[in-house]
Amino acid sequence: MKYLKGSNKEISQILKKEQEALDHQNLAVEKAVKDILLDVQQRGDSALKDYSLRFDHIDLDHFEVSESVIAQAFDTIDPAVLSALKNAKANIESYHHHQLEVGFEDHPSPGVIRGQLIRPIERVGVYVPGGTAAYPSSVLMNVIPAKIAGVKEIIMITPPQTEYVPAILVAAKLAGVDRIYQVGGAHGIAALAYGTQSIPKVDKITGPGNIYVATAKKQVYGLVGIDMIAGPSEIGIIADASANPVYLASDLLSQAEHDKLARAILVTNSSHLASQVEMEIDRQLQTLPRKEIARASIKDNGRIIIADSVTDMFDLMNHIAPEHLEIAMDNAYDYLDLITNAGSIFLGHHTSEPIGDYYAGSNHVLPTSGTARFYSALGVHDFIKRMQYIQYSQTAVNNAEKDITNLAYAEGLAAHARAIEVRRKTIKTQDQKGPL
Q1: Residue 135 near residue 127, CB atoms below 8 Å
Q2: What's the pTM?
Q3: Per-residue b/e over 140-156, b at no fewer than 16 CB within 10 Å?
Q4: Best CA proximity match to 93, nearest among 138, 136, 139, 148
C-alpha cells in the first residue's frame, strides 16, 4: 500500500485527484452505449436478441424466465444458503420498515390547508449482474425497500445464462420480484428505460453493473429515475493503537477483492499499527482466492495515511466521504458525532463491513467516489414520491393577495399577479370543499 503524508488539506487534494482519475469516463464507452440505447429504442426486442447473441453468446427465443426455471432453482439451492437468505430478508425488512414516511397536513391560518402525500413509484426495474458477479444479497437490498414502499410492480433483469445461479432466482422470489427477464448490459438498461415489445417500461432503475451498465443508467437518467451513479467499491478505516491488524487487513481486502479499481484506505495515528497492517495484508493475500484482483487493487489504490490526532483522522475521512467507513477504536460508538460524510458506518473492532453487506439489515447499495457528501444509502425513500397540496379559501386569498402580487410584479410576471387579482373580484357564497 502507498503511504500518504502531509496536511489534511494536501492529502485530501491528492486523494481527490486519484479519485477523479478512477472516475474518468471512457469516451469510447459513452459512444458505444449511446448507440446501443438508440438501437434498442428503435428496434426493441430484435435489438435485444442481437446484443444477447453478440455479448452473451446466447440465442434467445424469449426473454422472460419461466416459473419452471425458478422452481428448479428452489429445488437445487443449498439449504444453508436458502436459510441465510431468509434470515437476511427478515433483517433487511425490519430495518427498512423504520424508513417508512407518512404524509402530513396542517392548518396554519383560517381558510388555509397545506399538506404532503406519500405515494409509491408505480414500476421499478432492478438490474442484477450475472456470471461471477452474481450477488443474491444485492437482489434483496434493491427489491425489499421497494416492496416496503409499496411499489406495485418490480421487474428484474439479469444477463442470460446457460445455467442460472439458483440463489439469484430464489432471492428474487423471496424478495417479491414480479417478473424476471434474461437480458443484461447497456441493452438491458435500454429495455427498462424505453420498453420493448416484451419488456415493459419502468419509472426507475436501480442495481449495480459494470461500466456499460453504469454509463447507460447515466444516459437514460431524466427519462427514468436511477438510484445513483456508482463507481468502484471502497472502504475507509479509522483506527488507533487499540485495533487488531489482522482484522484491519481482512477488512481492507474484503473490498479490494471486488475490483482492481476498488479503493482501500486506512487512516491511523499509529505508525506501528500501519506497518503491522501492511505486513498482514501481504500474508493474507497469499491464500486469497481472488488474490490477483485484490493485489492489484491494494497496489494501485490502497492507501495508508498517518494522522497526528483523532480529530485529524475524522476530519480527513469526512473529506474522503467513503462508501464504507469502519471505526476500529475502543468505544467507537462515542465517535459518531464526529462523522459527517459516509455511506454506511461500522462501529467497533468486531463490526466488519461484510456484516452490512449481507446480514444486519442496513442497505449495501451505497454512494461511492465521495458522493456520500450528498447521496445516501438506497432505502424506502428512493421508491416514493412526495406530492404537495394546498387549499386557500376566498378569505385566505384576499389576506395574502398583496404579498403574492408584490412578489409577482417584482419578478415581472404580471399574469401571475392577475391570477390572484381576478379572485378578489369573485364573490363566493361558499369556499371550496375541504376542512377549513
Answers
A1: no
A2: 0.91
A3: bbbbbbbbbbebebbbb
A4: 148
Which amino acid belongs to residue 224? V
- Residue 56 sits at the vertex; the CA angle it makes with 50 and 59, to the nearest 5 degrees, is 50
Give CA–CA dist 420/429, Å, rounded.
Answer: 18
Instruction: Please say if the pLDDT value at position 436 is more than 50.
Output: no
- Rounded Cα distance between 214 and 189, Å, is 9
Residue in 323, 326, 353, 364 annotated catalytic: 323
Mean pLDDT of 7-32: 79
pLDDT at residue 1 above 50?
Answer: yes
Helix (H) or strand (E) holding 269: none
Rounded to an integer, the average pLDDT of 69-94 is: 97
Helix (H) or strand (E) holding 376: none
Distance (Å, rounded) from C-alpha 227 to C-alpha 59?
31
Reported as a pLDDT band with limits 50, 70 and 90, residue 176 is: very high
Return the amino acid letter for 417. A
Residue 64 a catalytic site member: no
Name the phi and psi angles at 168, rounded to 5: -65, -50
Q: Put residue 382 in one of left, alpha, beta given phi > 0 → left and psi -120 to 50 → alpha.
A: alpha
Pairing mode of beta strands 123-127, 153-158: parallel
- Please state, rounded to an integer, the average pLDDT across all residues of the chain: 93
- The answer to whether 232 touches 404, Cβ cutoff 8 Å, is no
Q: Which secondary-structure segment (H or E) carries 189?
A: helix 185-194
Angle of CA points 199, 204, 205, to nearest 5°: 75
For Cα atoms 150, 156, 162, give the angle at the middle one, nearest 5 degrees: 155
Amino acid at 253: L
* Predicted confidence band of residue 25 (pLDDT cuts 50, 70, 90): low
Q: Rounded distance, CA 333 to CA 297, Å?
A: 30
**Active-site residue 324, yes or no?**
yes
Determine how β-strand 384-392 pairs with β-strand 204-206: unpaired
% residues pLDDT > 70 (the chain) = 96
Q: Which of 324, 326, 353, 364 is catalytic?
A: 324
